[in-house]
Structure formats: structure tokens, C-alpha cells
Write a structure and sequence with these properties.
heterodimer, A: 306 residues, alpha/beta, two-stranded antiparallel ribbon, 9 strands, disordered C terminus, B: 191 residues, mainly alpha, 6 helices, 8% strand, elongated
Chain lengths: 306, 191
């Protein structure tokens, strides 16, 4: 092994690799530690090591990573799912389990994911909610392709619509109208404060798409657009689940109060496994505004007057 | 706005086992105590705005638990109380979320009353490792407090019994076959 490896750097690469078959590192099972490496294995290790020395994230080196028990293909520059985001999915699943009537009867919840990246959130929800359907959007071409590929690998293509879309563009919501109002909006939107971008680790700065991270001055740019989108495409009593920066619960709360006509309430906040405020549950409390009745092809839910 | 982190961790502590069975094993008073505590955690405090809706958590809690029941045939392991657990993740985690990309996902879980510590690094997912760590800890705590009466010990005994039974039967069958063969040999010789 190269001498310029840190003990933990080598550990993480070996660990990440050994947990998956079909990979040279598979042969690092304890039983085989006493056997000499084949020339092919040596070459692979050399190649992978040099990539790691260039600070390429392990997930890109291995070309795959796990999320909620699913194995997903990873490819730069598409954003690598973070462990915290698994808890976002857990929360959504809990909420869906607790309010089955609100989420549709036969066809599980209809979910919109904004900024799908590798497809992690959408695909894990689809695989754990067999009746659900997902509309996944992303403004990055590479993300659209990767989500499609992962959906195909997991045989979930029939229940997901993957749409290239930039939600910050005016009127973008119109492209989503054909699929009807959704029960849920889920997102891990770019939420890094712009001034924090340059402090990110080289692994992130040099390999992951900055557009998947940079949320503008207060990290709120994309979040605001997602919340504004609700007016057009979220059902009454529908929910939005977001992963955010720990400073956002207050900022989002304040912003929502300044936008009373959105009819959105910040209902709950949940912390991640490190105890940081990380997830928000926002709920819609009123009828959709300014939406022509004949825009929806399907049967309409009964409108509560007032 | 309410913090639902504690509520979620509470349910994770019970593991994927038959939650309904665990509920039934609880005394009535502790069961309703649990529901009361959960209701307090998630109910919306009054005066948070005209559009605030109270979140009824107690009945939903029961629904979630019933759904999970019947997953395993195993009798219920003793519940782990989240408040008695101390969890540790990799140090130097940094800002977390999008701003961090660490692949270390080891979970260290300690059961304070007994002092048992479990380390789990089995999967690439922190979430999975947390769940697994709790399952492993549940079993260890069971053994610690119940010794020979623990589920794990009993299961081992059952497995051992079955293994012995199978060996015995296999031996019997072998003997029968031997005997039959000998008899055939004998009858051949006669003719």
C-alpha cells in the first residue's frame, strides 16, 4: 500500500469497497489477507488509490453507494446522498403510515421530489411504498440520466416520471400540471450558504456539482421556490418535507409568516442523528389559489368552502 | 412548531420485532404512560397561530405498532428505553448535511444501566447501523438481565436440541439401511 495514505483514508476505501461484491476489494475478506494479490488486483488498487489521493469521494471511486438499503450508482458530478437524508425518508414514511386517508387510497401517495440527484429519495420512497408514484425533477442533465439509470436498475421506472426542470424559473410549475396535484413534496434542495461554499472539503468542492449545493446568500433561494410551488401543485392538507441547514427553521418560519397567501404552516422540525435541526415539515392549510378547475384531468377532491 | 426527534428515536429503539406483543407485555399503566408522553411530544401547543392544527399522535402510534406486529415469530425481546441509551458517531463530523461527505458510518451504542456497549459498522448506512446496533444491544441486554431465561439463550437451546434430534434420526436411518443391506446379503447367499 502507498506510504502516503493516512490510516483512516485507507480504512474508508477498504471498508466501503469490502461491503460490496464484484469489486477488487472484495478479496480483502479476512480469510484472504494472507494470500498475495494478483497483478490485476494490484493494478486496480493502484488506480483507485491514486483517485483517492486526488481527493475523489469514495462513492465516486466505487461508482456506487447505499441509501436506505438500496444500492445506487454514483457518478460525478451528481450529488452524493448524505446519511442524514435517510432520516428524511424515514420521517416521510412515518407520516404516510399515520395518515393513509390523506395520502390517497388505491394509488399510494403521489409525490414530487425537487432536485432528485441520483434518485435516492424518490427510489427509496417508491420501494417502500408499493402504491406510490413519484414525479422527480432536477435541473441537471447528469442527474436526470443517473436517476433514470438507478430507476431502471431497481425496476421502478414504471412508477416514476423523471422530468428536467428548473423550479426557480418562472412558470416552471406549469410543466407539472398534467400529472395532477400531489400529496407530498419532498426535497433535499441546495441549502449551503453561499459564503460557506469555499470552506467545503476538497472532495465536495472539486467533484460535486456546486449547483446542487449552493443555496444563495442565506441558503434559501431554492427553498423559497419550492414553497411557492405548493400554491399550484400541492393538494389541500398536503405536506412538504425538506432537509435544510440548521439555521433554516427560523428563516423558513419567518418567511412563511410573510407570505400568508401561500397558506403554508411550519408544523414540525426534526433533528438529525447529530442533534442538529435538519428537517422541516410544512403543511398546506387552504384551497389552491388561482388554479383553473379544468387544468386537472382527473376527478377533483371535494372542495371545503371557505 | 414541535421537535419530533425524540418521538422518532423512541420507536427506533424498539427495533423491528413484534411491537404489538411488546405493548401487550407492558403493564396497562406504563402503556398509557407511554401514550401520554408521546401525545405531549407531538401535540401542537396552543396559540401558535389560527391555522395550527393539533397533531393527534396517540392513536397513530398504535397503528404504526400494529402494522409492525407479526413480522417475526420470535417472542418479544425486552424493550430498550431510548433515554437509557447513549449513542456516538464518528467524531469530527463537521457541519454535517450537504457540507460534509464522510463515509465513516460506525455507530457506538451504550446501554447505561448495564454498561453494555455495542459497535456496529456492518453496512454503509448510518441509519441501518443504528437499527442493527439497537437489535444487537436488545439481545445482549436480554442475556445480561435474563441469563438462561433470555430469548437468545432459549433459542440457542432449541436450535441445539433440534440439531441433536436431527443427528439422532440420521443415525437411526443409517443403521436401518445397514441392517437392510446385511439382510439382503444374507438372503443372496442363501440362494
Amino acid at each position: 500500500m502507498p506510504k502516503n495514505w493516512s490510516a483512516t483514508g485507507l480504512q474508508s476505501l477498504r471498508r466501503g469497497g469490502s461491503l460490496r461484491p464484484r469489486h477488487p476489494f472484495q478479496s480483502l475478506r479476512p480469510e484472504l489477507w494472507t494470500q498475495p494479490l494478483t497483478p490485476w488486483q494490484l493494478q486496480c488498487i493502484q488506480e483507485l488509490s491514486s483517485r483517492r489521493l486526488q481527493r475523489m469521494p469514495v462513492q465516486y471511486i466505487l461508482g456506487e453507494w447505499d441509501f436506505q438499503g438500496l444500492s445506487l450508482k454514483m457518478a460525478p458530478p451528481v450529488f452524493i446522498p448524505r446519511p442524514e437524508t435517510e432520516e428524511l425518508v424515514e420521517w416521510v414514511l412515518e407520516e404516510v403510515a399515520q395518515s393513509p386517508c390523506a395520502m390517497g387510497t388505491q394509488d399510494g401517495p403521489l409525490i414530487l421530489e425537487v432536485g432528485c440527484g441520483s434518485g435516492a429519495i424518490s427510489l427509496s420512497l417508491l420501494s417502500q411504498l408499493p402504491q406510490s408514484r413519484v414525479i422527480a425533477v432536477d435541473k441537471g442533465e447528469a442527474a436526470i440520466c443517473l436517476t433514470e439509470e438507478n430507476a431502471q436498475r431497481l425496476r421502478l421506472l414504471d412508477r416514476i416520471r423523471i422530468v428536467p426542470l428548473d423550479v426557480t424559473l418562472e412558470g416552471s410549475w406549469a410543466h407539472l400540471l398534467p400529472w395532477g396535484p400531489v400529496d407530498l413534496v419532498v426535497s433535499n434542495p441546495p441549502y449551503v450558504f453561499h459564503q460557506d461554499m469555499e470552506q467545503l472539503a476538497p472532495e465536495i468542492r472539486s467533484y460535486e456539482d456546486p449547483l446542487a449545493l449552493d443555496g444563495g446568500e442565506e441558503g434559501m433561494d431554492i427553498i423559497i421556490h419550492i414553497l411557492a410551488l405548493a400554491r399550484w401543485i400541492l393538494k389541500d392538507s398536503g405536506s412538504i418535507f425538506l432537509e435544510v441547514d440548521p439555521r433554516h427553521p427560523e428563516l423558513v418560519g419567518n418567511w412563511l409568516q410573510s407570505q400568508p397567501d401561500l397558506s403554508l404552516d411550519l408544523v414540525a422540525m426534526r433533528r438529525d442523528f447529530c442533534g442538529r435541526p435538519r428537517f422541516l415539515h410544512i403543511q398546506r392549510s387552504g384551497p389552491r389559489r388561482g388554479c383553473p378547475a379544468d387544468a386537472w384531468p382527473g376527478p377533483q377532491p371535494a372542495r371545503v368552502p371557505g | 412548531m414541535v421537535d419530533c426527534g425524540g418521538l422518532k428515536r423512541k420507536f427506533m429503539a424498539t427495533g423491528p420485532g413484534p411491537k404489538l406483543a411488546e405493548l401487550l407485555h407492558m403493564s396497562t399503566s406504563s402503556f398509557f404512560g407511554l401514550l401520554a408522553r408521546l401525545a405531549r411530544l407531538c401535540t401542537m401547543p396552543q396559540g401558535l397561530g389560527p391555522q395550527a392544527k393539533p397533531v393527534l399522535s396517540a392513536p397513530r402510534v398504535a397503528v404504526t405498532m400494529v402494522q409492525a406486529a407479526g413480522k417475526k415469530d420470535r417472542p418479544a425481546l425486552p424493550l430498550l428505553d431510548e433515554s437509557e441509551l447513549e449513542e456516538q458517531f464518528v467524531k469530527g463530523h463537521g457541519p454535517g448535511g450537504q457540507a460534509t461527505n464522510k463515509t465513516s458510518n460506525c455507530v457506538v451504542l451504550k446501554h447505561i444501566p448495564s454498561g453494555i456497549v455495542v459497535k456496529c459498522h456492518q453496512t454503509r448506512s448510518v441509519d441501518q447501523n443504528r437499527k442493527l446496533a439497537r437489535q444487537i444491544l436488545q439481545e445482549k441486554v436480554d442475556i445480561f438481565y435474563n441469563g438462561e431465561n433470555s430469548i437468545v439463550y432459549k433459542e440457542k437451546q432449541e436450535a441445539e436440541k433440534k440439531k441433536q434430534e436431527r443427528k439422532r434420526r440420521a443415525k437411526e436411518t443409517l443403521e436401518k439401511k445397514k441392517l437392510l443391506k446385511e439382510l439382503r446379503e444374507l438372503s443372496k447367499n442363501v440362494h
